[in-house]
Request: fold
Amino acid sequence: MESLKELFSRVTENWDALALFVAGILAFYGLSRLLGAFTSRRLSQQSAALVSTGNLLHRTVPVGHAFLDELGYKLTALLGAAGIAGIAIGFAAQTSLSNIISGFFLLSERPFAQGDLVQCGSDTGFVLSVSLLSVKMRTFDNKLIRIPNENLIKKEVYNLTKFPIRRVNVKSWGRLQGERGQGQASSRTDRQRR
Reply:
């Protein structure tokens, strides 16, 4: 409780630091929105949201650091501890980091987009969203499937709606009538008929 009173007294003594912090946050929020509007025309919806959020976080953290530094808090020890904690968390979250890196590859390569019909392994459905961690699909029987990006990078992915023309393989087991009315062999071989 004492530290909250101390923080409140420091903030009230440094109104200029508080005003600078609020102005910085608002300015960077506006820049993030402007960047999001600019990138939404050039990138996919998921990529634009990722760039906008990353830009906002990238700009907000230094403003918060400057604000706390202006109030008299030294963050060097905290940043050192955060670095060590980051290493420990990195080892613990290898799968999540692998999914995030795979998500960057999926967003840059763009093998499919939102609304495409995709087959991955035994799962087939329409892509609802592509994020850094996973892809969400809706199947034909209206189930939601969440596939981690790491699995999509390792498996073959078929985009069934990428091109407007599709080839459909049809096997016929009967006889086809030729131009002269004679039966022609179907897809069965002579050995299968005997």
